[in-house]
Structure formats: C-alpha cells, structure tokens
Design a protein that fits this description.
Strand content: 5-15%
Helix content: 40-55%
CATH superfamily of the largest domain: Response regulator
Structural class: alpha/beta
Distance between the termini: 56 Å
Number of helices: 11
Largest sheet: 6 strands, parallel
Oligomer: single chain
Strand order of the largest sheet: 2-1-3-4-5-6
Shape: globular
Order of helices and strands: EHEHEHEHEHEHHHHHH
C-alpha cells in the first residue's frame, strides 16, 4: 500500500488563548498538524520562517496595536511565500488589506472569514481544505463591504443578480446556488451570464476562476 500523505502543517496566530487552543484542538481532530501557535504578528512571521507550514490561520487584530497586525503579516507572508495557504479570521472587515490579501498569489489558496459567522465546524474544515486545494473562500459580509466600493457599476444588477453574485464570490457552483436560492439551475445560469456581461467579466465554467474574476473586479475599486 502507498504511504499515507503527510498531515497538513499549520501555524495558528491568535492572541486569545481559549480561541487559539480551541482552534488547535479542532484542527487536530480533523487530521491537521498544528506545529505552532502564537499570539502576535511578529511571532507569526518567525514561526513561518522556522517551521515552514503549509497553512497559516491568523487573527486580524493582534498585539501590540490591535488594529490590522495579523492581516498585514499575512500579506507579507504571502509575498515572501507565494505557495503558502492563508486563512484570515476576524471580527471585522479591514477593507484595504483585505483587498491586498485577496490579491496575493493570484487570489489562490486564501480565505477571509468572520469569526462570528463560523457556526458549523464541518463547513469550516471544508473551507480550510478548499483553500489548501487552491481555492478561494470569502465570507459574504466581506464581499458586501468590497462591493460598496464599486457601487455604481453594481446598480446595473437586479436584486436577484446581486444575490447570485454574492454566492459566486463565496465559491458556490450554479447547482449549489440554485439550491440555496430555491430556483432552477438554468435560471442561475442565465443570471450568471447576465452578471458577467454587465460587469464586463469573462465567462468561465470553473467555479474558482469565477470567484477570482469577481474578486478581481472588486479589487479594481479598492482605491476609489
């Protein structure tokens, strides 16, 4: 029998001890190997340099300033290590650096999730695995914050098209969107085609490419 693949090596960065230990236990339960758990951004950068993890899961606001230290560290790490998977966890949407994080390494192997909206353990783990497989996972609230920066073009979209757009940015396929919105898959396909046309985005069948196309569109407005 072929040898089992090595477990995914993870470094956690979270200043709250209980949440840090809880995340470590959760990931360990699902077969991940937590090789480092730190409480500030500088320690995170040091742990990545020393331990060479496959994945970083980091809080956004950490000591000493409790502003955006974790997010800035994540952006730096992605620039230094383009293949490093990163998931940012936050109570808030830090818009400027959120765009920079999603822009790093062509937007692949990255996630931005809001802590209060992570309510299903298995869904969270599925999101982690999706990011490790090269995907992009973005909380819909983050998407809405970024959408506000490009408000004028989005006025072209109907309310239903904006709903579908948010689901696309979450990484859902047409079939999954149809189930979530209680409409037919054919109807979703028409909405997707209309959205891509109205936003001047190239059509693509691959779900992750659709997510990247939407995020690329959103990022173009980050200086506006």
């Amino acid at each position: 029998m072929p040898p089992e693949p090595a477990p995914v090596r993870v470094v956690l960065a979270e200043d709250g001890v209980l949440l840090r230990e809880g995340l470590a236990g959760l990931l360990g339960r699902f077969g991940f190997e937590v090789v480092g758990a730190v409480g500030d951004a500088e320690a995170l950068k040091g742990a990545v340099a020393e331990l060479a993890p496959d994945l970083v899961v980091t809080d956004i606001r950490m000591p000493p300033g409790f502003t955006d230290e974790g997010l800035r560290a994540a952006v730096e790490l992605r620039r230094a290590h383009p293949g490093l998977a990163v998931i940012a966890l936050s109570q808030y949407v830090e818009q400027s650096y959120a765009s920079d994080l999603l822009d790093s390494s062509d937007g692949k192997r990255v996630g931005y999730l809001l802590k209060d909206r992570v309510v299903d353990v298995e869904e969270f783990v599925a999101n982690v695995r999706h990011v490790l497989d090269g995907g992009t996972v973005v909380d819909p609230q983050v998407v809405r914050q970024l959408l506000r920066r490009r408000r004028d073009p989005l006025l072209r979209l109907s309310e239903r098209e904006r709903e579908v757009l948010a689901r696309i940015a979450e990484g859902h396929s047409n079939a999954a969107i149809a189930k979530l919105l209680y409409v037919s898959e054919a109807a979703v396909g028409k909405h997707v085609g209309s959205i891509l046309a109205k936003l001047d985005l190239p059509p693509a069948d691959d779900t992750n490419r659709r997510v990247l196309a939407v995020l690329a569109y959103l990022r173009t407005g980050r200086e506006q």
